[in-house]
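Here is a typical protein record:
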Amino acid sequence: LSFSSLDLAKSGHFQCQAFVTVSQKFDLKAILRDISGQLIPLGPKQHANSDRGLQDEQFKGFQVWDMRRLGDKLRSYLYDKRYLIVLDDIWSDSAWDNFKFFLPRNNFGSVIIVTTRIRSVANYCSHLKHDCSYEIEPLDQIEAKELFFGRLFGQVDGCPRNLWKVSEDISKKCGGFTYLPPGFGKLKSIQTLGLIEISDDTCWRIQEIGCLTQLRKLRIRSRNGLNKENWESLLAVIEKLSRCFRSLSIETDGRTFSLLLDFSSSPPLLLESLLLYERLEVLPTWVASLDNLVKLTLVGTKLKDGDIQVIQKLPRLFSLRLWFAFGTERFAAGCSGSPNLQLLAIQGWNGPLEMTMKEGAMQKLHRLVLVVSYRSGTLKSVKGTKYLQVFEQSK
């Protein structure tokens, strides 16, 4: 099943709809959170800017609510609605028992579609009088090819030439099966991509990344540069998956340095780890909103005094590493700045660097690492260490 083929809410059949993948590792809280995020809209229409803010706040609320509150909210919202919910890939009777408790019986003609690979589970989920159970017939070779190519490349004719033969061979193997092998058909379940290298010659990889709707960790490296169009495509994909990401690493080279790292509407505000290897003239404005950020590494940026002040206001920042990242000769830690910072590592700067820490700043700092890498770089002074409670200093 695909959600696009079941988009019936727009036609008036249902007032709301949601599609969620269950899988073997059944996580009821995560499923309730996902469904609530799809079903429950914002309140009255407001200005576009405030509308985005409310949406972000509501999403953050779903992340921290306990299972009982999520369930009560979902049940209350659906009480007077005609809804469609698709539960894809259920593996056990207990998964269905645990979930159906949160759905109201309102007799408004709502529909729940369950897909499973196990016949006994299908029978268990459809034992009531008006329930129906269907066993899907195996795919023929043409259908297998359409499904395989469409799932991987977005369309049947989207396969790169260098992968054509192996893709044809694999799609033939898929004929006769009702679902694709886990390594391909379930690509959307991938949560970590250790390193993906992209360039103008391999820009098709950007669209593939956009299909990984559960991706939590992504590391991108642009080895031979990206033109403006492909760079904007990459930013659009990051925006599309912004609510998934917890860790993001973007490493660019000289060709891409001049391009901005700005998002038009949905920056990845739930990041816990961020690495930027770019020659940024200005720190992106959305960094100031990363309230969950724990680790920040900046390489090749040109931080100014204002950027440093923004970083110090990040409430949960634990580790800050700055490699060749200074466009200023001063690092001033203000009162109450960086309240949870425990590691500060600075390597490489031009000219004499002067560090000043005011009373109340970086009270949890354990380790300060300063490495002079440029010939013209010197450490002029480090003032205010007496205000730090416990830390190790390395030069």
Observations:
- The first strand starts at residue 16 and ends at 21.
- Confidence is low (pLDDT under 50) at residues 1-10, 43-56, 176-186.
- DSSP finds eleven helices and 15 strands in the chain.
